[in-house]
Specification:
It comes from Nocardioides baculatus. This protein is of the alpha/beta class. It is built from 7 helices and 10 strands. It binds adenosine-5'-triphosphate.
Length: 214
Amino acid sequence: MADALLTVRGITRRFGDRTILSGVDLDVAAGEAVGVVGPNGSGKSTLLRCIVGADEADDGEATLAGRVLDEKLPEIRRDLAVVMDDLDFFPDLSVVEHLDLVARAHAQPDAEEVVNVVIGEVGLMEVSGQLPSTLSSGQRRRLALASAFVRPRRLLVLDEPEARLDVDGVAWLGSKLLAEKAAGRAVLLVSHDPALVERVCDRVVRLGPDAGDG
Ligand SMILES: Nc1ncnc2c1ncn2[C@@H]1O[C@H](COP(=O)(O)OP(=O)(O)OP(=O)(O)O)[C@@H](O)[C@H]1O
């Protein structure tokens, strides 16, 4: 296998006397997508949160291109785009203003063009002037995804990105993730959609009772 861009070793997380994650290892190389699957409560979101540094593991470590991964560090944020829960969008910025701000804040070259392309792809053109509070829940999910796609990134980390998307939205998401791989980026995908995982992921890590690599 190619050198891993993301390396996760021995992630262990306990809540009280419950061990949710016990020594999880995984690698994701550039141009590769790895899926994380398992039943509700098996620790998928906890694993992603520990990997990106939003939660502190009791043991273990994640590195991105050899640097300890913590989404709060500027040199990591340059390379990392994360979509977990829907973002708290600025209430008084429209769709296009929000995306423009995110793209420019992360020093996206050609921010204006990238934002325009992504708004079209993600199907938000008609509502691009609207405030987040006036969007449907699926449109808000699309805006959260678009917020990741307008910033520079080498690794994309997604927690159930298919949630609340319609059939066309999930199909688009699959194509977009394949394009991420083709562009040499790495994707780590938590999903409850077996068809999406099958379409996009090169390997699967299973959490819960049937844990293991698939
Ligand atoms: N801060 C916390 N304190 C106590 N327990 C927690 C905490 N965060 C998560 N847990 C527990 O850890 C377990 C794993 O939760 P997690 O959200 O990682 O599961 P998941 O696999 O992502 O589930 P789902 O498929 O429902 O999204 C659950 O039993 C949950 O209750």
